[in-house]
Specification:
It comes from Sulfitobacter dubius. Residues 1-19 form the signal peptide. This is Polyphosphate kinase. InterPro entries: DUF1007. This protein is an alpha+beta fold. It has one domain. The protein is 18% helix and 34% strand. It has helices at 4-12, 50-59, 72-78, 175-186, and strands at 23-33, 39-48, 93-97, 100-102, 108-115, 118-126, 138-141, 148-159, 164-169, 208-213. Strands 5-6-2-1-8 form a 5-stranded mixed beta sheet. Strands 4-3-7-10-9 form a 5-stranded antiparallel beta sheet, with no helix packed on it. Helix 1 crosses helix 2. The radius of gyration is 18 Å and the shape is globular.
């Protein structure tokens, strides 16, 4: 995830954290399909872990009474905090057609809520023309550096089609990946994994959402 507040907030409280990942995000997807069976939009939901949510609210001076409840105005002030993407950032979401990446728009129609001590945001992304057939598409939410760990634990739904369905495929956790995870977690929180020769493993650990559609 690439926006300024993440780095600022985590550096302020880096000492108790392991190196990677720093942020845990439960992810949900709404796959929007048109009458011709083409995928036109994705609505992506990110539910941030409680600790990161606390860092964000404290950094912004929200919830001063520490009761875990935000006013409507406080929630409104959070809207879009995670949408300040740097140029070229793909939103930690990759859409694949036959192994080739399909371009997505920047975030639109951003919404934010706060529940059970967690910030939950959603945003809409349009599929750039020409919209691909939904059947066989793969959606992968991940941060290549594994600084942020995304896991598809929220709902995955299909909107606009009764013939399409989504299946969540977990990553293949082989011995090499487990060893790399242990190496990452052992690093000092301020150490960049690339500085000690560790590769980016976010894609290898990513969940895959596979769309399949029955012939009409």
């Amino acid at each position: 995830m690439k926006y300024p507040l993440v780095t600022a907030a985590l550096l302020a409280c880096a000492t108790p954290l392991g190196a990677h990942p720093h942020i845990f995000v439960d992810t949900g997807l709404e796959v929007i399909v048109d009458a011709e069976g083409r995928l036109t939009h994705l609505r992506i939901t990110w539910a941030y872990d409680e600790f990161y949510s606390l860092l964000v609210t404290e950094d912004r001076g929200l919830d001063p009474d520490y009761d875990g409840v935000l006013t409507q105005a406080e929630v409104a002030s959070l809207n879009g905090f995670d949408m300040q993407w740097i140029e070229g950032f793909n939103g930690d979401t990759v859409l694949l057609e036959g192994g080739e990446e399909v371009a997505l728009s920047g975030p639109q129609d951003v919404e934010t809520r706060f529940a059970d001590g967690r910030i939950i945001t959603s945003h809409l992304r349009a599929v750039e023309d020409p919209a691909p057939a939904a059947d066989g598409l793969v959606i992968k939410p991940y941060d290549p550096t594994y600084y942020t760990a995304y896991e598809v634990t929220q709902k995955v739904t299909i909107q606009g089609s009764d013939t399409c369905r989504a299946r969540v495929k977990m990553s293949d956790m082989n011995a090499d990946l487990r060893a790399l995870q242990q190496d990452l977690s052992a690093l000092d929180a301020n150490t960049d994994p690339s500085d000690v020769g560790l590769p980016e493993i976010g894609e290898a650990l990513a969940n895959e959402v596979v769309i399949t559609c029955d012939a009409s």
